[in-house]
Description:
Layout: H1 2-55, H2 59-72, H3 77-89, H4 93-105, H5 110-123, E1 136-142, E2 145-146, E3 149-150, E4 155-160, E5 166-170, E6 175-179, E7 185-189, E8 199-204, E9 210-214, E10 219-223, E11 229-233, E12 235-236, E13 242-243, E14 246-251, E15 257-261, E16 266-270, E17 276-280, E18 293-299, E19 302-307, E20 312-316, E21 322-327, E22 335-341, E23 344-349, E24 352-357, E25 363-368, E26 376-381, E27 387-391, E28 396-402, H6 403-408, E29 411-418, E30 424-432, E31 447-451, E32 454-455, E33 458-463, E34 470-477, H7 486-498, E35 506-511, E36 516-521, E37 542-543, H8 544-553, E38 561-568, E39 575-576, H9 582-590, E40 595-600, H10 608-615, E41 621-623, H11 632-639, E42 644-650, E43 662-670, E44 673-681
Parallel strand pairs: 12-13, 34-35, 34-38, 37-39, 38-40, 40-41
Antiparallel strand pairs: 1-28, 2-3, 4-5, 5-6, 6-7, 8-9, 9-10, 10-11, 14-15, 15-16, 16-17, 18-19, 19-20, 20-21, 22-23, 23-24, 24-25, 26-27, 27-28, 29-30, 30-42, 31-32, 31-43, 33-42, 35-36, 43-44
Helix pairs in contact: 1-2, 2-3, 3-4, 4-5, 8-9
Amino acid sequence: MKKTAAILTSVLFLTVSAFSQVNLKDTAREENQKTRTANSGFAEEEFRRGVQSYYRGAFNESIMEFEKALSYLPGEPLVLDWLGKAYYRAGIEGAALQQWNYAIDSGYGGILLQNRVEVVSNRRVTESEYGFNQRYTESGSYPNTNGNNLIYSQPVSSLSNPDGSIWVVAYGTNEILRFNANGIVVKKSGGPINGFDRPMDIIRLKDGNLAVSESAGDRISILNPEGNFIKYIGSKGRKIGQLVGPQYLAEDEFGNIYVTEFGNNRVSVFDSEGNGLLFFGGKTSDFPGFKSPTGIAVIDGRILVADSVLGGIYEFDRAGNYTGVFVNDKTFARPESLKQWGSHLLVTDKNRVYAVDSSDGSVYENSVVGKGKNILTSAASDRNGNIIVTDFKANEIYVMSKMTELVGGFYVQFERVISDNFPEVTVEVRVENRRRQPVVGLEASNFFMTEGKKPVEFELMGQANNNDVADITILIDRSLSMKAYEDRLNAAVREITASMNGNGTVNIVSAGAIPVQEFTGNPSQLSDFSARALKCPYSKTVAADLAVRLASNGLINAEKKRGIIFITAGESKDLTYTQYGLSDLTTYMNNNAISFSTIQLTQTALSDETSYITNDTTGTSYYIYRPEGLSSVISDIIGLPSGLYQLKYRSNLSTEYGRKYLPVEIETYLLNRSGRDETGYFAPLQ
């Protein structure tokens, strides 16, 4: 009996102990769940604030809020993704990649996030990876028929337009055609009333008009930017100002027009008004004379001319004096056009396209089309970084792209979501290739938008590439070396702001030991600008990095076309970069579409740091006393391409009184390339 009682007591103790352990574990789980729930609530609130700060352009603030959210929920992949986005827009790409990789390691993001990491990582390598000696391959073509209807015949040359469209000269159908980025003809022009007579080449002149050579008409037609006829230049003959079989065209910095002549075996030159100036290319003591001049280009005052019989490229000065062989004889089989491509020339030669370094004549094979049954007459870059190749014999227009671009596709990113008028939502989407070059000319048909993977109807409101207004920050060097050039500084600021014609906003930031925001307002208010009114004193050392950062901050929420103009005397010893690295500064500007241009008040060389920032942000360097003046500085900034698009749709999602994270996705298609992105936002609190 005692033994039985002991056994019962033992069993009862074990049972009670077991329940006690279960109850203790359940209690711990409940406490953990309560803690998790409380932390989730705090994290969600910080996350919502972070997203809203991000869309306001307050990237540093959003970084702090996302980090607070992670302090409540460490390792939360959605927050890691957004923290990476905020670091990216703040110009701290190394930290952005780190956060994205943390998210990927947790199984988040899939191929989309992996592709983003790959693109951003590749952009951080040296530019040599994207050099001019890279191979291009066909990514699409523009058909020459629509059913039984002929669209064009014997394409011979092309010209890129700022809006992403291209003009193509059709020799066989005696017209020029304007194709949009999707390869659809949006306009045709037959030239004058009596029509073109075998048009050969087309270029854009400095005044915006177009010049078209007519090989059978022995003349050059001048058209307005829309392709409407204005006047003729030249007439048939062998004298100065006369032509026989004009072919390829070029223009120099003074507006003089150069044209190669098949019939006269020479180059003729006209001034900007169309008056004949001279011709050259005949036999001289040091030049054997052209056999069949074809392509022509003007680079840095040098006139480069190809000869399809001699197979080389030859150099002349503006007066027509022969200065030497640029590319040796017989390098090419039958070269045709020469078109400038950055620091290189694109040369077509039977079924091949070559890139020729304009500094030393080095030749690289760029692409091959077909198997020798082609006659490529022109290769020219378009606004989207492609090369447009016309094939006269095969009757084709090819769009050539780098293989890496075809495989990787576009880099698409949501920059902003505006939900103030929810359920009406406006999004701003930037489309670039993998080299950060904007993709322009897209239409509504190039986008597909969804929310929560369900398609929505949307409207394309516009594209920033067409904007004709820019906001500017003038960054003024206040180092001691600038004291002697106050009059030049005053003249530069007045000329720049006057060229804005009262449009846009101007900020003035002084770069001294501590940078100072001096002015914000309409450019017309600076007609009497004086350096003596600046509050920032001259300094022995200038915190250039802080000044550039301050100037950039003021443009984050500015017009979509925006840029910094740095005015300096050019001396390097006074400018310091101690708190921000050059790559961080340029990344910040590039990731927010801010260009950085420089105006030199002296002819001394720019510092290496200033040159680096200017060259790495699509900016340009200008000398204050250049012949053209400074009036084009603003138009150059406005003319920079922009791949930013604004779309609007009506959401069908429930907001839970503004506390629910609402997803939205977008895909972009163009010819054989595509890209996508996804993001989310919060509706206003109710």
